[in-house]
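SEQUENCE, STRUCTURE TOKENS:
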Amino acid sequence: MTRLFNSACHLAIIVSGFAAVQAHAEARASETVSTPVKLPATESVVADDGPGGLMVAAQKRSEPLEKVPVAITVVRSDAMTRLSTNTIEDTQKLIAALTYVKGATSLNSALFLRGLGTVSSSIAAEPSVTTVVDGVVLARAGESFGDLYDLDRIEVLRGPQGTLFGKNASAGALNIVTREPGKTFGGYGEVGAFQGGEYKTKASIGGPIGDNWRAGVSGFFSDYKGNISDKTVGGKINGYTHYGARAMVIGDVTEKLHVKLIADYRRADDDCCGFVIGALNAAPSASQAAVQSILAPALGGATRESVQVTPNRTKEVTYGASLQADLTVGAHTLTSITSGRQWNNTEVRNGDWVDQLYLNVPLIRDLGPQRSKTFTQELRLTSPTGGFIDYVVGAFYYQAVADRTYTRSNTYCTATTAIRQANGLTPCPTDQSTILNPVGVAAFGSKFYNAAAYGQANWHFTPRLHAVTGLRYTYDKVEAYHTRTNNYSGSSFPGVGVPAGIGSSFDANVATGGVFNGTPWTGKTSAKNLSGKAALQYYVTPGNMLYGSFGLGYKGPAFNTFFNMSAGNTAPISPETSKAFEVGLKSNFNNGRLIFYVDGFYTKVKNYQANYPTTFNGAVISTIINAGDVSTRGAEIGLLYRPNRQLTISGGYSYTDAQVDQFLVPPAAQAANTITSGTPLAFAPKNKGNFGATYTALPRNLPFALEFSGLVSYTDKQVSTLAPRNTAAQMVAFENLTLRPHTQVDITLAAVDLAKRYRLGFVVTNLLDAHYASTIVAGGPGGSYLYQIPRDSDRYLGVVLRRNF
């Protein structure tokens, strides 16, 4: 309770002194892309996957979902509130086509849609699924993985969205809309306590601050001990402490000029993400077996114990501001969105997974602070609707700069007089051993410049037959640099010796050992692209729309710039392009009581940018490559059924077949590591779906209602890396890297007073205690594999109290 009280105090400090914010935003007559709309009071759903009065901004203007020829899933804030979820990671249970890939830090986490996405540790590579918050494009995937609070909705646009959302939407886009302050005083406070030592608090207040002006602030504080026991240092790891705030000011400068200023700040300290040792090498050597023996009982993946002298840790500070101005010019609206953001991320990483220093078993420590800043400017003109044609035209500029200094420190024992243990390992006490401390330091960074012009038109040939056409011209320039030094002249220490060829000659055959110690490398590349979209819509009835679309997707060039960069990584990564076909039906029956959608899709990708595992200097690493031609095809369905005001049923299902068509072998790869055609892409489960229901009971003679919400989500098996299957050993490894299918059941029972001022909810997450891992990677000690165990892999209970005013 002390921790809970402290959390509430943090929130009180964050939100004090600001005017009130209401629970639902009022819609302006001339809404723009980042303006939420007021939803019907009867809406009470787990996830809205159809029209039903929902307004979206998928085409850079607010319009009903049924009029948009794009596959879209909309997750409402009330859905996340009922399930006590507050991150993008949590929303993958509500969105059938979405997969969240959790890395050792947010820097190398990623989003996948329909089996397509990019996981990369490179500082000079960008995501395949773009994230837009209140009209502002986020440069890095990791920036979007913060806490979601005071949310209005998340729009998930599936398939390439490059025409309107830019180069980093080759697999799709997430458009996040936060709640605006209202025109009357209001707000809320919420406190939650959960099993396992987790506490969440958030609050929001705001309201009018003068004629035609509103302001508000929202804040949150959350804390979690963790779900993994560390055998070496004691206590729990994989926990976090997060807090932050967002302030918003909205007003009419003149009758024709409307402005919105947003500023936000977030700080995070995560002792995350520690791995659990899982499946073992099928035939370990004697030395591997010895290392494996000290890991028991952490082996097998079912335990919640880890062995780390120094647990992984990530510290983040992110902040930024944006200014949106909407100027009425005749019947048109001219919109300007200017933003600046800073994202600082410091990674502390353990790379050995042993409990102490042993002979010939190094302790590896990484420290990698990264600083990133982004500037964006968008200018667009939006026409009025109601005529034969309406359109949006615009220009976009983007500059993202990132710098990192990465230090890898080894502690290596080469000789000792200590006695060998029964398990075959020999410890190295400092007073009896010869210990070396090789250190490698790499300073590297990147600069991205992007300029684009775009336009999209909606053609209304008849009341039933419409068309959409759009084009986007994009110019990209990427610069990268890398300098690496070490304090040891040899290359026998894993990950520390200077790699061959980094320097002016780029000769991969030159011996290592500091030949290019400190010699800088720089790279530069650019690309131009013309992408576009064409779609036809036909309204069988006013509420039933058939559509078909064709789109060209694009993702810009990149560099493999990371700590272990070598001569084989200096060539630029070519742009990724795609051709996407989609057909669908969106239906609205009985005035919105039953909403249904179905779509089929096929996407062909050339120069697919993907992670590829390889061994470098004694360590398993993953580098981004152009993997060649890949494709994904499938079908999706969804429904929302509201037979009455008390009951809502919703569901979604996605079938995805994503595979390699023709692999492009990297220059340094061996023939045995070729990926054969038909190999499934990483993080592409064939079957994924959810089914949810919310029922509100009104008992007689009671001053409150009882609300029951339940969600069942299923995820099929999926491989966690793009791996070869050419030999028996590779097939075993492939199976070890495959995530098993799992089904999760989450339920909430809440009491809500009839005036909707109070809500007391009891939450059960993962009711059936269905254990699962979110990622598996190779490179563990003794030839083992490393399992990432998410928070909701184990059942836990919670209680949430909310007060509206």
